[in-house]
Design goal:
This protein is mainly beta. The chain has one helix and ten strands. The structure holds copper (II) ion. The site of copper (II) ion has 6 residues, from loops.
Length: 122
Amino acid sequence: MLGVAALLSAVVVVFGLTEEDLPLFAANGETALVQAIDNAFAPVEQTIVAGTEMVWLNRGRNDHNIVPEDRDPTWLFEDDVFAPGDEVSYVFQTPGTYRYYCSIHGNLTTGMPGVVVVTAPS
Ligand SMILES: [Cu+2]
């Protein structure tokens, strides 16, 4: 029995509690929209269920970009600029809080910050 308990705790350590290790949820076919206007994201904060495709649409007259807080290239577009009328999208599969900003018009605290809050499916 002790062996089982030790094994279980080893599994918990291996599949620990960091954000990276939370489960991936498959795309669910739903979309949510954030508009980039001049110069802000609207809404600034968007909450979605994991598996939802986030779409950013540039409704302004300026170019914008989306730079992740952690500069993790696995979830976005760090060096991409999207022009007026263009859109970019990404399916968030892992619950968490994803802060970003437009580096053309600000940083995480001023100018054009945004955040996507991804919750686990119920
Ligand atoms: Cu911008």
